[in-house]
Specification:
316 residues; alpha+beta; Glutamine Phosphoribosylpyrophosphate, subunit 1, domain 1; 7-stranded mixed sheet; 4-stranded antiparallel sheet; 10 helices; 11 strands; 31% helix
Length: 316
Amino acid sequence: MTFAILTHGGAASPKALSDGCETAANAARAVLQAGGDALAAALAATVVLEDDERFNAGTGSNLRLDGRVIEMDASIMTGDGRFGAVTGLERVKNPILVAAKVRETPHLLIAGAGATAFARRLGFSDYDPTTDRARAKYNRAIAELRGEGDGAYADDAAVWKDIAIEKVWNFSGPVLGTQGAAVDTKSRIRPPGDEGCDTVGAVIRDNNGGFAATASTGGTLYMLRGRVGDSPLMGCGVYAGPKGAVAATGIGEEIVRRFLSKTVYDWLADGMTAQAAAARAVALFPNEVDVGLLVVGEEDHAIAANRDMAAFASVG
């Protein structure tokens, strides 16, 4: 059996960032060529993506609505049905590695302060993933929310404009837009290629027919503290079994509603090709909802999205 490695930089991520996905795939390929399995290869690829600050995962993750907090989600699942995930993880360089440690416990998902304490107990050091790029992206996003933006994030801001943020504010700091809030709308440097970067992920089929899927994210542009998307939820952001592996990216709430990755996996298990399953999955979503998929089956693979999406495939 040949191996297959697929990596992505998020639904709506610029295709120009596919070089980062290629670097991640090359890291996974090196693991497989050295005798490593799908799990090890998937982790290697995802660490590369988390360390590339152009993507919204690990270093470079999105700031939450207060402009201070970064909470990260990640998950990994392998073809033997074992799953591990973290959500609301703070101040760790590589959330996917913490998720892999959860997979080794009886638990499936560890959240919030408990996830961070778990990481510290296992030796993951304190790390600030905030970047100048992320701050500039945040400033542009808040300007859009105030009606002063450049239009890049208009669709993301639209669903919040009719919500009284002060009524749902759950941060310890001042409400957005009030005196002392960490907002600098005068500094809106436009980082090249930052638009739309979302969840990163990988799916792997190794030379022995083993499968793995990963997801890692800093979340959406506009988030209250504690918001959870699809990435750390089994069957939503990722799913893997003996017939294949699937990783999803896009609007997390919409992916969760469709239990997307497990739905696609079930189609594979029923005999559908990866190409057909991926195309059918994308067709489930209205055009205004970003969605992308990596799908690897026993004999084929597919990358599909209804937007541009940085991605790379390596097969050997």
